[in-house]
Design a protein that fits this description.
mainly alpha; hpI Integrase, Chain A; 12 helices; globular
């Protein structure tokens, strides 16, 4: 993504204008088969270039980092699609006995990412204490699946589970045990995936999203993506008055500013409600 567009420029002759032009080309046609890239993807590419140029400055190959002069494209903060409070109960009813029940309940209960949930092993789950430890993620690349470590220290975290999630996981483990014994795979071990294919391998993240989309459409439910369950979890926490720092740590954001930037509009709504509540109290005096 960097070399094809900027590789013919000598380091010392690279100028801010070249960076700006590179951004524009990536946004217009930098993807596969000439498709446009998102501002977020271009921003990641800019970060890679910036880091490389910073090293060149450190080794005195360059006098300055020209990537400093040009900011990456601004990512538009689109409205987050999440389930409303009164939409969650009908969803849980529709999920009863469905193969997606346990994984969806866990997503709603923890706000964990799709890849984090699919990477869980039973050794990461403590049903007695009612906790789940997020320590890795499952990534899908072209033609392969691989487990990877979280990008930040905050990505590794232990999340408390509500009782409904514990009960759902207990029932899921029992079903998994019965299936494994029937197939001659033996009892689950600490390294056994909590959610897996019938042969015990990892589930495709894209496949999960596809199955989820098929499910909500077939059931006539709100068209919220599987990732939208994470947003639904956060929305519920904000509506309940949970502070941003706690939410940030629970969902694995690198810092609290990321949480407030992404969910700022929801915090504003909650703040307005708080102002109205205190106004009612003051008027009652």
């Amino acid at each position: 993504m960097v070399i094809p567009h900027l590789g013919n420029h000598e380091l010392q002759r690279l100028r801010p204008a070249h960076i700006a032009d590179w951004h524009a080309k990536l946004l217009a046609s930098g993807g596969k088969n000439g498709r446009p890239l998102s501002a977020r993807t271009v921003g990641h590419a800019h970060h890679v270039l910036h880091t490389a140029l910073e090293r060149a400055v450190g080794t005195e190959l360059l006098a300055r980092n020209v990537a400093h002069a040009i900011s990456p494209p601004k990512v538009a903060l689109t409205e987050i699609t999440a389930l409303k409070a009164d939409e969650i109960a009908p969803l849980l009813v529709a999920l009863k006995s469905n193969k997606l029940e346990a994984i969806a309940v866990l997503a709603l209960s923890t706000g964990a990412r799709r890849g984090e949930i699919l990477a869980l092993r039973w050794g990461d789950v403590d049903l007695t204490a009612g906790t789940v430890r997020i320590a890795r993620s499952l990534e899908q690349t072209t033609g392969s699946l691989k487990f990877k470590q979280p990008k930040t220290v905050r990505g590794v975290r232990t999340i408390s589970l509500p009782a409904v999630a514990v009960e759902t996981l207990q029932a899921h483990r029992k079903r998994q045990l019965e299936q494994r014994m029937m197939l001659g795979q033996g009892k689950p071990t600490a390294d056994t995936l909590v959610f897996s294919t019938i042969d015990g391998g990892p589930i495709s993240p894209n496949g999960l999203s596809r199955d989820w989309g098929d499910f909500v459409r077939a059931q006539g439910l709100p068209l919220v993506t599987f990732h939208g369950l994470r947003h639904s979890h956060v929305s519920a926490l904000i509506a309940s008055g949970v502070d941003p720092l706690t939410i940030s740590r629970r969902i694995g954001h690198a810092n609290v500013s990321t949480t407030t930037n992404v969910y700022g509009h929801l915090f504003k709504q909650t703040d307005t409600m708080a102002a109205k509540a205190i106004e009612a109290v003051l008027k009652a005096q």
